[in-house]
Specification:
Immunoglobulin-like, alpha+beta, 20 strands, Ferric Hydroxamate Uptake Protein, Chain A, domain 1, 14% strand, 3 domains, single chain
Length: 732
Amino acid sequence: MDLKHAHQAQYSGVHQTDDDDDYHPPLPVSSSSRTQANDDHQPSEDEEAQLLSTEDYIEQFEFDDNTDTSSPPFLTTKHSRSNAKSRLSPIYRLFTFLSGSSHPHRQTLTPFLLPSIQSLPRLTLERLLSHPWQRAALLSTGLLLWLTILSVSLVQSKGTLLYADGEEGGEVVRHLDCVSTFWGPGNECGVDGERCKPFGNVSFAFRCPADCRQVQVLNPRWVGGQEVVYKPWVIGGGDYGDGSAAGGLTAASTETETETGTGTGMGTETRVYRGDSFICQAAMHAGVISDSKGGCGMVKLVGEYYSFFGGEGGEGISSLGFDSYFPMGFTIHPALTGPGKCPQMEMKTARSLAPTILLTSLVSVLTTSATTLWFTSFIAVFVHVGLISDPPNVSGPSDTILPQLISILFERLLPATFTSAVLFWTCSRSTTLGAIPPSANFEKTFLWLGSLWIGALSNFTLESWIPLSRLSAHDLSHQPGAVAALVAIVAVLCLTIAYQAYSFWLEGRVLPYLALYGVLLAGIAVGAVISVTGLGTLELRIHHYVLALLLLPLTSIQTRPALAYQGLLLGLFINGIARWGFDSVMQTAEALRGDDGLLGSSLVPLVDGQPLVYLSEALVETPELWSIAVKWKGINETIEALVPQIHGRGREEAERLWGLSVMVNDVERHRRFFAEEALEDQVFRWERDPRVVMTPEYFRFAFLGEDGRSLDYSGAGTWFGNGTWSSGPEYY
């Protein structure tokens, strides 16, 4: 028999033995006998206290598992147990704390205001359509109507012809993205721009999307002797001054335009832009289109042009100046009027955004099914982002742009929907959306659905005021306001995570989530180690859709902040996938760099002495051409000279150098491979007519890789119009 129970039985008048476990009630005791017993022994207060203390003390006794029950038991006292706990107290207390509140309770959302009003639309619908199939038919009809409105607006906006007044024929509008240009960065166009011809006598109608004003070049580029980064890429288009076009293009520079087109209009003079400018930003600068609506215009290539003047233009865009010549320039003209003119961009927004918001809001207010709300909202918002509000960069004629967008949409929608189903099942089905009472439908719509739209339209709602385009060391150190923005974001995330952790602690659910995030953080740590050590030239990239996936499990709780967080994160996930797709979290440096990013190369060609400049006498009748000659040091001599700066990396890079490239005025003019001629044997000669070219010329040098693509170019050296030479910063 248990010792504690035996002791308790003794004091209650019950006697039990190990041989007889039956319960024997105490014998009745008469009142007189009880009185006599009390008279014989009246316990004092100290004895009563001792009795209670003894009972509490004996309750702490335990049998030793290894002790024979027939012998006196081994007793572990309260003092010895407290010693054992004291040795484990830090771990024990931490584990006890993380296990949650001593009185765990599930968080529930109680309607804040007018619960009867919030549930009225749902109750009304159930009275009017009492059968589930009727409500399903109503939802199907709404989805079909929404698809019809969306299809009509897409066909009208992306399949439009632009006609001249009075003409029966027309040309197909070419759809551009915000970074479309005629001339690629670096040496993409090849020697003398052969890959980007023709340079002139070409015109076509184009259409630009809205929201292109905030686009900036995120990697350093050169305009002559000026390095540009984190600015719009528009060169020229300012006041003409004394600039003149080459090849009989002076007439084009004084052409006038009277149509107002789809933009605001900036005057009558035609503005000339350098050929590598972003076309849509140039159109905004010229006042032909607006940032809020986008629109159509006509672009004309005018060939070689001199002196591109910078200045303020439409939509607050400030263009860059270039005080020399470039083989390609273009002008922007308003769209021609007529029956097939470019439709206003706000019509597309009105015909698609408003119906989509209306559809998702009605579903949220009228249904109590979390499954219906989740998947209807997810698919509708995903389609809107992928086709209208933030589609992927696709350019081409009007009759091909829509099929391309639809193809990309379904390529990304199917895996995204599967991921969404997993998120719903684990984060919302039985915790957040699935447990909200019908009397809180309006609050659910405002908090969850409203935040979903804010995240899905992040290119309008968030990105415009957060000065941090990419989470990279270069952007943090060079982009204005990037560090402050990162600190603010981290602070908000820490406060949010702390509040959500407290909510989980109240429910006693902290430990499982600590295990989950321990695994996730371990994976991120492995990726960071690979990125830092340079293993396999891979770099860790936390895209905003990945950030949403990491944080969504923290929203699986029924509180008002959790509703808003979940909607916002799901919207960011939709925007990231619909716009960019499932980019890898481990990307190569080449993929992250893009077309215009710096390679981070340590080696640049070293000029052997100063360039040799030959200036003929300026004869009035037959002046000779001026010339400049540049010669370089050999590879080994270059490495030895740069060792203090490159810390030994150059020897590895030297094995991957295949040739030499020379830029003059941002156009590749010389390309020679070492298999044809050694570096120290190559001489680059450049000539000019001093009667024609009276502007500076800018020279930059770079090595070539195996694929013929240039590595990072040096800084610019300048050959001025008077024949003098100057070596600029970072010129070797």
